[in-house]
From TrEMBL:
Pfam families: GGDEF_2, HTH_30, RsbRD_N
Organism encoding this protein: Sphaerisporangium rufum
Protein name from the UniProt record: PucR family transcriptional regulator
Domain of life of the organism encoding this protein: Bacteria
Domain CdaR GGDEF-like: 172-280
Protein family (similarity comment): Belongs to the CdaR family.
Amino acid sequence: MQMNDTPAPSVAALALRCLDDIVAITGVWLSRAMLIDPYGRPDPPVPAEELRDTALDGLEMLLRHVATGVVAPGMAGFSERVGERRAGQGVPLASLLAAARLDARVIWEAMRARAVPAALPDLIGGAHHVWEAVEQHVTGLMTGYQRAVMEMGRQREDQHRAWFARLLDNQGRNPDVVRDAGRVLGFQPAGPFLTAVAHPEAGAALRAAANGLTAAGLRCHRHDTPTGDVLVVQLPDRPSDHEAGVLDALAGVRCGVAPAVTGLAGVPAAVRLAAATARAPGGGTGPRRLEDSWLAVFAGTGPEPAAELVRRVLGPLAGTEGERLLETVRTHLSGSGAIADTAAALYCHRNTVQHRFARFRELTGRDVRVPRDAAVVALALQAAAGPPP
């Protein structure tokens, strides 16, 4: 690229004189670059030999640029290649640019040290040639760096997508897949997770919610699917303290939310449960928890939510007491619904029936005297018994 004007002959001659001492000038640059993190670390991301060779080539390129006003043949893509390389090595962009801008100072000092007094006016008047050459170099570095970052981001997204799809396909059954998927996705495989699946029309809203949760410090993975995007959130060690916050972040997102699971292996099942909840008829414009949507989910889906319902509603009942409570509830729900009729059928006092209902509510959180709870318990009992003949 041609610069704004042609350098004065004395300025060009100074640049060419510096080329004769390029090794020494490169040594000065290296001594200063070592003060910029991470170049001076004991185990730097850029090997010392590579850094020296790149600095030597870059300073030569810049000096020839100052001397001639054009980039040396074959060097036009040098800056962008270095930017791409440093991005791949994990050098922060700020550090890369700080080191690159050392070029201007080192070259200017080298030219000034070699200038005779008569050449100083021309050198000062032509200082812009040095700055313009270095700024063009910096622009190329930034272009290459940003291009590499974008490409690495795409590759990372592709890798995340592939491993999450593998986790789903495997249904969490292979411990090696669970472990490796957790590593790639940045999850702690043994930790708690909350899973949401968006309605097909709510993908953009789910993406915005995921960005907000990530900004709040939670680790998330969003997975695009034609039937509804999936969001998996790694919860802190005490998930009950943070579930409400996740649901708040999902406000306005039409989605289904599965109960929290412990362990990444449970996420595939949670995805299916959240998807069933999202597909259930009815619903509003915000998140819908499976816990609050059993009737709707059962109206529009199949056996997996049934198994989850049995586990969550009837799971707390065990032993002789549990069997007695279940017998009382079955009798009540299969009869007229009157306490007196239930007591008569069981040959016990109505107060005994009331006590058993209270105990059932204490264990399960469901009161069979409330129509909505009675419907959920009836569904759980039917699911536990299997499909009717």
